[in-house]
Amino acid sequence: EPYRHIGDEVDGILKQLDEAGSPLGASDDLLSMMESALSKEASSRSPVEKDMAAFLEKYSTLPKWVDKDQLKRGQEVFLAYLPAASLSLYYRSLVAGFSIPKIASVVRATAYLAPPSRPDQVLQRLLDTGELTAACTGLG
After folding, report:
1. What torsion do the CA atoms of 19, 22, 23, 26 make, to the nearest 10 degrees?
2. Helices 47-59 & 30-39, crossing angle to 10 degrees?
3. Highest-scoring range by mean pLDDT, 12-21, 80-89, 97-106, 131-140
4. pTM higher than 0.70
5. Is the Cβ–Cβ distance between 98 and 107 less than 8 Å?
6. With contact defined as beta carbons under 8 Å apart, do 79 and 137 qualify?
7. Distance between CA 126 and CA 123 in Å, rounded?
8. What is the C-alpha separation between 99 and 79, in angstroms, rounded?
């Protein structure tokens, strides 16, 4: 339970944006904001832009210890079993997850997969999740 209250560098960035009177909105793209900050001359960056640029630089570089061949094999296995895994996750664990109080409270609070969301919004959320998974695990 205590780990639920531990964040990462992005928490600090979001806090800085909020304190500066520029809280991140639903349609704001934090990654684009970070890329914009990184493209600026370092001396002209605001404090939050410096943190954004540092975050992006840190996590855009693959660590030296990563075995790229093993990573590619893992991606190939994941992609080979993706259809079966997706069906299992979407239709078995997702539904069962709704019965777990802490998960159900997040679903209700975000309204992503529960009323007042419309069915088309729920479908879009599920498609977004699938797209993110494919982007994170796809080859390349």
Report:
1. 180
2. 100
3. 12-21
4. no
5. yes
6. yes
7. 5
8. 29
User: Rounded distance, CA 3 to CA 57, Å?
Assistant: 26
Question: Residue 83 is inside which H or E element, if any?
Answer: helix 68-88
Q: Tell me how crowded residue 54 is: count the other CB atoms within 10 A of its CB.
A: 16
Residue 7 has pLDDT above 90, yes or no: no
Residues 29, 27: Cα–Cα separation, whole Å: 7
**Model pLDDT for residues 14-72, shown as the tens digit of each residue:** 999 999 998 888 788 999 999 999 999 999 999 999 999 999 999 888 899 999 999 88
Residues 6+ apart with CB under 8 A from 52: 13, 33, 34, 37, 38
Instruction: Print the SS3 string covering 27-65.
Output: CCCHHHHHHHHHHCCHHHCCHHHHHHHHHHHHHCCCCCC
Rounded to the nearest integer, the mean pLDDT of the chain is: 85
- Indicate the residue type of 128: D
Question: Is residue 119 reached through a cis peptide bond, with omega within 30 degrees of 0 on the bond before it?
Answer: no
- The CA-to-CA distance between both ends of the chain, in Å, stands at 36
